[in-house]
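Hypothesis: this fold can be encoded by more than one sequence.
Test: take the C-alpha cells below, design a sequence, compare later.
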C-alpha cells in the first residue's frame, strides 16, 4: 500500500480548491495502534479523515492542533499535525464504541506559526455534526467556505473550498459552493469508487476533469514522545501524588496515549 497523501487541485475557471486525501495507509496504521472496534473505530476514522486535509492550509513551519471535548457522548479527541505532513492522534476512552450523529461540548483549534503568538479558536458544540465542526473551523479561522466529503467505500476524503472573489483574478462565475459540489457529484463518486492509491492515477484522473494539479504532501503518523518527556510530566505532580503513584514500588510503567509505547520509570528518576 502506497503512503497516504493529500493532493491539492485548483478549478481555475470557477474558483474552487480540491484537497483530496488518500488516507488508506494512515487508517490501516491507526487500526494497529488502537484497540477500538466497530462503531467506535469507524467514528474515529471519520474524525481523522475529516480533519487531516486542513494540513493543506499550513505554511512551512506551521502546526495545528484540533481538540474535541465532547460531553454527550463523552469522549476526547486530539489530533496534532505540522506542515511537513507528520501527525499524531488519539481518542479517549480507549474503549469508545459509539458513532454519534451530533456532539455537545467544546472544540478548540490551535494554529502555531513562526515568530507569532499561537492562534486559538474555540467552538461550542450544540448538537453539532462532525463534518460541520471542520467546516466551521475553516470558515472561522481561514475565512473560507468549505465542505468535507467522506467516502463510504474507501478510507478517503475530499475537502472542497470556495476561493474568495475579492482580490482574485480567477474567472469565477460566483457559483454557490453547495451547487458546485452538486454539479460535481459524479466526479466525486467516480474518484472514490476507483479507489486510487497511486499519485499518477489520481493526478491524471482529476486533470481530465479540468482541475489543475498544484501539489501533494505525504502524511505519516509520528509521535515524538520520549522517556524524558514522561519524567518531566510526572515531576509536575506534588510529592504526595508521586508517592501514591509508585505505591511502594521502585518502578512504574507509563504508556503514551498517542502511540501506546510503554516506558519504565524508576522512582529515583522522578
Amino acid at each position: 500500500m502506497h503512503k497516504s497523501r493529500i493532493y491539492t487541485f485548483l478549478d481555475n475557471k470557477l474558483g474552487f480548491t480540491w484537497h483530496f486525501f488518500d488516507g488508506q495507509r494512515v487508517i490501516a496504521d491507526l487500526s494497529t495502534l488502537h484497540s477500538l472496534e466497530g462503531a467506535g473505530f469507524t467514528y474515529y476514522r471519520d474524525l481523522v479523515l475529516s480533519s487531516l486535509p486542513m494540513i493543506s492550509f499550513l505554511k512551512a513551519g506551521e502546526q495545528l492542533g484540533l481538540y474535541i471535548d465532547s460531553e454527550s457522548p463523552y469522549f476526547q479527541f486530539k489530533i496534532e499535525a505540522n506542515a511537513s505532513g507528520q501527525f499524531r492522534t488519539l481518542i479517549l476512552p480507549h474503549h469508545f464504541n459509539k458513532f454519534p450523529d451530533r456532539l455537545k461540548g467544546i472544540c478548540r483549534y490551535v494554529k502555531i506559526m513562526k515568530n507569532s503568538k499561537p492562534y486559538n479558536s474555540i467552538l461550542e458544540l450544540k448538537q453539532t455534526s462532525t463534518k460541520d465542526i471542520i467546516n466551521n473551523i475553516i470558515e472561522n479561522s481561514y475565512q473560507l467556505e468549505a465542505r468535507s466529503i467522506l467516502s463510504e467505500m474507501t478510507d478517503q476524503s475530499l475537502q472542497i473550498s470556495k476561493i474568495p472573489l475579492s482580490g482574485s483574478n480567477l474567472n469565477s462565475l460566483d457559483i454557490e459552493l453547495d451547487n458546485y459540489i452538486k454539479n460535481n457529484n459524479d466526479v466525486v463518486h467516480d474518484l472514490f469508487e476507483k479507489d486510487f492509491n497511486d499519485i499518477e492515477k489520481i493526478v491524471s484522473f482529476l486533470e481530465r476533469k479540468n482541475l489543475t494539479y498544484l501539489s501533494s504532501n505525504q502524511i505519516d503518523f509520528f509521535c515524538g514522545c520520549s522517556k524524558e518527556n514522561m519524567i518531566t510530566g510526572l515531576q509536575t505532580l506534588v510529592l504526595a501524588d508521586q508517592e501514591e503513584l509508585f505505591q511502594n514500588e521502585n518502578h512504574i510503567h507509563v504508556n503514551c496515549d498517542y502511540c501506546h509505547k510503554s516506558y519504565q520509570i524508576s522512582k529515583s528518576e522522578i
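Residues 38-51 form the longest helix (14 residues). The mean pLDDT is 91.
Hypothesis status: open.
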